[in-house]
Amino acid sequence: xxxxxxxxxxxxxxxxxxxxxxxxxxxxxxxxxxxxxxxxxxxxxxxxxxxxxxxxxxxxxxxxxxxxxxxxxxxxxxxxxxxxxxxxxxxxxxxxxxxxxxxxxxxxxxxxxxxxxxxxxxxxxxxxxxxxxxxxxxxxxxxxxxxxxxxxxxxxxxxxxxxxxxxxxxxxxxxxxxxxxxxxxxxxxxxxxxxxxxxxxxxxxxxxxxxxxxxxxxxxxxxxxxxxxxxxxxxxxxxxxxxxxxxxxxxxxxxxxxxxxxxxxxxxxxxxxxxxxxxxxxxxxxxxxxxxxxxxxxxxxxxxxxxxxxxxxxxxxxxxxxxxx
Length: 325
Prior knowledge:
Structural class: alpha+beta
Helix content: 25-40%
Largest sheet: 5 strands, antiparallel
Radius of gyration: 20 Å
Distance between the termini: 48 Å
Strand content: 15-25%
């Protein structure tokens, strides 16, 4: 690990000012991903700005939304009474991710900023355009079983590892950030980037901007389910995950939200599939037709050619489980 300076900020402004003074500064809270990356030499920092003292740990219900501070722990959010009652999809997704020990350290803001778990990204002896732009992508013709089938480019096929973010995408969340130019709000669908020609850029956050909160609009979903397909039942990243939220009235689907994980460099919303479900009865046949629509445009490689079929089966399964609640 490289040497670095350490600064503990007491206000949001102080944190942003400290980050602005150095060309290579990173904010740290739980550090569950950042420290691993620094230890392995994937990332370096001249300065770490500790934000744990900032007043960003509140979960509160406002007029038409839920406000979640960026320093709320994943474990606290998953067990919050409001979340379990009104946003159970989010609680299910959080509990499907990592281990209890990690959830007790990881924060909401840090979860949003997780880097990919692509083995070629972590292995500094291998080419990786996300880690070293222009070096190539070892996964393209390598062991790419875990890799993306949607939104890929010839530069990168890595996937985003978060479970929480898949649920937030389905729930139309927004990200509140603060920076030298003030505050702004980024829609969850616009926060994470596809690789394109700049795979090293994971999101649309400015270099010295700080995530301060996540907000989720009120919703009237009656049925939900988070399904995570993985190699083992615990502490494993998704091959495919599905977040489903439905509003069913009089045996008809009034509203539908579906987001996928493990298939792209960002949570992958399925607006065409959602539209296909609206107005339909919640039946296995209708779910299957909608699920089959979801794989249009999928691009597979040697070892992940199984994923489109897994996506279809997983979506249908998640939809069926949601109406069985």
